[in-house]
Write a structure and sequence with these properties.
By secondary structure, the chain is mainly β. It is about 5% helix and about 40% strand. The protein has helices spanning about 5-10, 30-35; strands at about 45-50, 55-60, 70-75, 80-85, 95-105, 105-115, 120-125, 135-145, 150-155, 160. The strands form two sheets. The chain has a five-stranded antiparallel sheet with strand order 4-3-2-1-10. Strands 5-6-7-8-9 form a five-stranded antiparallel sheet, with no helix packed on it. The longest helix has 6 residues, at about 5-10. Mean pLDDT is about 80; it is low at about 1-30.
Length: about 180
């Protein structure tokens, strides 16, 4: 499924609390939307548009592994990236942490990183126990410990890629209580 570049940009806007789903986004070419904020020579590992119209992306070098390549988080709009983390690409995989939890009819996956005093968590959640299965994607940005922070809802119809693709690449998130790190 191809997604417009501006749609991805719209979905990444920051706002307090979870935002309701917005209307259908404007269209762009399939090639533009498939890469979102990633360069032509990079892989889009995960990307989505916030309900506010900005894009959230995890971009990586081709053939990314735990020991080779790089991973970067990007937030903003095409041509207007507001945050690129980390600035230094070497060893960037060690700056992110991966968590995954699964049981019958439930799944949770997240990628967390800290940039200065702020914590960021991209997540995917599936709940099939309620009778009507629900899938949710989001971004939490919070200051320090205990801060409720800012939550961005990511439009499901704009999601490209899977956080689960990073399971064998990123260190296990020992701060996530649902995660079972080896």
């Amino acid at each position: 499924m191809s997604l417009p570049k501006t749609l991805l940009a719209a979905a990444l806007g920051l706002g307090l609390g979870f935002l309701p789903l917005a209307s259908t986004p404007p269209t762009t070419t399939a090639a533009q939307s498939q890469k979102m904020l990633c360069a032509a020579n990079e892989e889009l590992i995960f990307g989505a548009v916030t309900t506010g119209g900005k894009m959230v992306c995890l971009c990586g070098s081709p053939n990314l592994t735990a020991q080779r390549g790089y991973l970067q988080y990007r937030f903003g709009r095409p041509g207007q990236i507001e945050l690129e983390y980390p600035a230094e690409r070497a060893g960037s995989q060690q700056r992110f942490h991966y968590a995954h939890y699964t049981r019958f009819q439930r799944e949770w996956a997240s990628v967390r990183f800290r940039n200065r005093e702020y914590n960021y968590r991209l997540f995917y959640s599936f709940d099939g126990e309620t009778g009507r299965p629900t899938t949710e994607y989001g971004l939490n940005v919070y200051l320090g410990e205990g801060d409720k922070g800012t939550n961005f809802t990511l439009r499901r119809n704009t999601v490209v890629g899977r956080l689960q693709a990073l399971e064998d690449i990123l260190p296990c998130d020992r701060e996530d209580p649902t995660n079972d790190c080896p």
